[in-house]
Amino acid sequence: MAQMLAFIGPCLPFAALGLPLAVILSEYYASEIGLSLGVVGAVFMVVRLFDIFVDPLVGWGMDKTRTRWGRFKLWMFICLPILFVSTGFIFLAPAGVSPIYLGCWLIIIYIGFSIAALSQSSWGSILTDNYNERTRIFAWWQMANIVGIIAVLLIPILVMNVMGGSKTLAVQAMGVFIMVLLPVMIGIALWVVPEKISNTSAHDVRLSDYFRMLRRPNVIRVLLADLWLGLAPGIMGALFFFYFIQTKGLNREQCNIAMFLYFFAGLVGAPIWNWASKKYNKHRTLIASSLIFAVIYAGLGFLPEKNFPVTAGLVFLAGIPYAASLLLTRALMADIGDEVLLETGHDHKGTLMAILSATTKLGYAFSVLTMSALAALGFDNRVETNSTEALMWVQIFFVGLPVAFLLLGALAMRSYNLTPERYAEIQAGLREKGISNDTGTAPGH
Q: Would you say 287 and 414 are in contact if contact means Cβ atoms under 8 Å apart?
């Protein structure tokens, strides 16, 4: 358990950084820093699309890496200075900075974030070769991410409501919080958690390897599910404040509390989906959680105005299935990595995790584009009351699109066939061939 806690420790600063990047900073730069909503949406979208091409390069580097410290621990160390410096420039930016300033530092922070996310998820994929234990590791990983999100969400509540500080001060406090945690948590993980030195060859990774992975039916299914299931919460995060303030009459404090409850519910959901995946297997659990999420999320369109208790309750329920997709898609892709290892003799886990991370980012990139689309359709975040037509588009984008994407995510996994029985055959084949599956010491054992 000490190793497990050390491994998930970096999730706290990573998630604390990821939430503002996905939800808070775009709205903050539009409302407080002084950039227009359309410009902010365009800058975030362009940078995120650029960031998608970073992941294959990082995956290539990780698959090529062989050091006495391991493959993924070295990359975890590399991300530290990049994230530390860029976090300071993004969160402590003065009012009136240019779009170029925002775009350049966003590129740097996303590069660091890509390295951090890929190195940790790839590291987690080799800590065990047990089908259910792998899900357990990613369930803990997801819960730690949620704790990091909750922690960073509490900061504006404390700064603005308890201390009486400004929104600018709250965002700056988030940045300082992340900068303090980064060296502490990464340092503990690198010190405590083992990584077995892989005895598979550091083969030549080519662009063709990515296309070869993309031709695998199960990879396609997981990637499509990850894309659709990433679009849904991405749109929710980008438009959360606009929807509940402009169409449901809540104030910012109530929105902050509702978002806190949404992510807190993920702590309830992660153990549930971990248990369900053991009982019903991973891909069926992913399908069920997506359908449940779609049904609950659709209810957000029928919420009464200015009724915070009902809104908070339904947002909390929506947070329970939200926790399933990230942990299950990564556990599923790790299983596919072992299948590839058996068939080819090469370890492509870095490549596979890079492809998965790219689709997640693609979903979030297009979700931010909804902000620019709303601006083009007449919505103005700087006025208290928008036109009826503009608010109609907010509701369509916030409710209708995520429900459709959640249903598509469930549909994508319908034909997935790497079952627990097939995975047992894969492990038996690896043992028979004497091929290292690159496992380290499993946390908790």
A: yes
